[in-house]
Amino acid sequence: AIKPDRLKTAKTLVAKAVKLRKVFSVQGPYPVIRAALWARGWVERHVPHPAQRATHCHGNEEDDGDAGADVTGETTEDTKENLDDMYDLMSRLVRNETTYFHWTTRRDYIDCHSLRNDQITNHYANSGTFTTKVGLCVNLRNLQWFDTADPDTFFPRCYRLGAEDEKHAFIEDFRKTACTSLLQHVVETSRWRRDGAEGEDQKAHNRSDLLDNVEHRFVGPGMIDTALHVCQEFLNVLEHADIDVTVETLPSVEEQQWAEFLQDYYVVVHEGALIRGSGVFVERCQATLIRLQEACPQLDTDGLNNIWIIKPGAKSRGRGIMCKNRLEEILALVDSDRALTKESKWVVQKYLERPLLVHGTKFDLRQWFLVTDWNPLTVWFYRECYLRFSTQPYSTKTLDSSVHLCNNSIQKHFQPSCDRHPGVPEDNMWSCSQFRAYLQQQGRGEEWESVVVTGMQQAVVRALQTAQDLVEPRKASFELYGADFMLGKDLRPWLLEINASPTMACTTAVTARLCPAVQLDTLRVVLDRRTDPSAYTGGFQLIFKQAAVDVPQYMGVNLLVEGAPIRRSRPLLHRQTVTSNPTLAVQLPLDQSLSEKVETTHKPSGQRSYAVSAFRHSGKENRAAGEKKRPCRSRTCEQPLVVHTEPQRKAQRLGLSLVANGATLLQHRTPTCGFPSLRGPLPTLEVFSLQPNIVAATSPCRNPNVSFHPSVHMHQLFLCSRRQSMAKFKRVHRGT
């Protein structure tokens, strides 16, 4: 039974929390987040855990260790049990209330579009555009639109093997890298020989290993010529020396030659074979490498073995990642999984063969950063990070994941090697403070801030800038990310990937201190600064905040133009029409005894009839045509055509024209412009020289031999309405 005083206290706390909108929900084992929110007066509303989905929307996210125990501190068991009972009681009281703070492991647990503006969540929609292997690979190619930096200076070369064009680009890159690696091999081999005893020991070791394979121990010098030629062509392209070449040339190295070159390269570099007469090429190789150094910022880290790391984009926590150094093996591995290849999920990235080592052991860095707004882009960088070591000494002679993958979810399955330096920690982790002390011993302590931290900050901001147009901005959202870096021998940081929902498992003494701290500081930035802009932000420092940008009406670059097609007009219904010959005319002479004659032509059904103006012919041609048809019974027909200016203007205002001896002419002119939906001009009717009977003055003359169309009848009505005007015109004409 619940004690009345505890129930009263719970109701009081719940009422206050609801009034202040302090109801939260946490999905996943985040005891630090829960404890920090409880301390701020928030009440948790328990929600059912969503069912796990078979396919996740951001397969690159890390979730290893999140279900493990976390270090929260100093509460005794009895006190914790009492507090848990109280919190459970309060949770039941707010089960029907609105949640105002969501903290989840995955972004697809919460639909950001259904949240209100005052509801906070720890994920942004579409942030998978840079937290997936494929997304980061594609987006960083657009860096030129946001920054002048070259992505090849902080992000290893990367290709999607599912895209056919990128697959071909990778093959070309692999071949070119084999050529540059061979040149470095020639130069370094000659250097070993000059070093004296150490070089002699190295050669003796190589020879003893290959005594059973003498026939393949030596390779001809032609492969060095091929490598120099390929590198020279590459430099010419970079220097635009081929810009004036108009004739398409065949490839300088055929496919069969490439296959032979790569096999010789594998024998020399991987198996230790020697090249006959390589000493005469040393100077040329050195000169070419100096030129390549200026054009290829990754030349120092490429190494000699041409190792590439293959990552399946649909898996996380290092699963499925492996290293390969032969082209045919990489292509075969990708082709074996058609599903991932079809979706362009396979990513191949150049492996950094010459990283900075600590006591001969490889490591990488996990660096946290926080985004609190995307417009304007606001980035917070955590002051502390930690190092993750491999359990085995570093070597490029083996491609085992225990040597090359420093992910804790991979290394926890291996025991530290007996050959590993004792200075490497047994739990495989260092804090950044311990690493700075190591650099200080090496005389490079100042480079931590000036080179490492600055380089990581720049890489993070540039990666976010390329994804800014793709992530859906939301003012009440935030997200904590974990970026993985490797350091070159010059301490330059190289961005490997960015993870959403980074693990907060306290698996070592280092993470037991740092993971709770970064969670508490995240809440300081997200919650405390909302009410107090000067609030303490812990280890987070603001490193980037751009000016606000007006968001256009569309999202991304997908534009859509909608419209309706223009349809052709329907064909005119068939009707019996009165059309004209090329000299269509209905003439009524002044002699009223004459009958009207109308010449018509009818075109077959389905064809349009077009009127042809009689004004295309001169007056003599019209008269000649009339004489051929019938004899002229009036002398007035032979009189010259006389048209007075004033009557002509009046007739034009009435839409009429004049013919000889006062005969009137009615013309419907064909429009000179047609409608866009029609192929030709509109069909019209032209009737010339229809003159009413002046004597009868009642109705126009009709010829019983002519079958009048309704359109002709309309013209007759028009004549009747203008009868008085024509009579007046005739009187004026006769008076003159």
TrEMBL record:
Keyword line: ATP-binding, Cell projection, Cilium, Cytoplasm, Cytoskeleton, Flagellum, Ligase, Nucleotide-binding
Localization annotation: Cytoplasm, Cytoskeleton, Flagellum axoneme
Entries under Pfam families matching the protein: TTL (PF03133)
GO molecular function, one term: protein-glycine ligase activity, initiating
Catalytic activity: L-glutamyl-[protein] + glycine + ATP = glycyl-L-glutamyl-[protein] + ADP + phosphate + H(+)
SUPFAM superfamilies named in the record: Glutathione synthetase ATP-binding domain-like (SSF56059)
Domain of life of the native organism: Eukaryota
Gene Ontology terms: biological process: cilium assembly; cilium movement
PROSITE patterns the record matches: TTL
Record-linked InterPro entries: TTL/TTLL_fam, TTLL_monoglycylase
Region annotated Disordered, chain positions: 52-77
Keyword Nucleotide-binding part of the UniProt annotation: yes
Keyword ATP-binding on entry: yes
GO cellular component, one term: axoneme
Protein name: Tubulin tyrosine ligase-like family, member 3
